[in-house]
Prior knowledge:
mainly alpha
Amino acid sequence: MLKFISHSFDGMDGIEIYPIISLLLFFIVFVAMFIIVIKLPKNKIDEISQLPLENETNSKQNNYE
């Protein structure tokens, strides 16, 4: 299967740049998200970590049955 795909791409000029662009894009997004997470204040992380617990209590309070 891979030989069939690579044989199809042999005739295309400039196709070798796309894997490099994909890797760079992945790396840039990964590093950006890592930096954003590292710079988050501790109180914001605590607030986000409590969201699933708050959602359960809110759904019980909003139950009209």
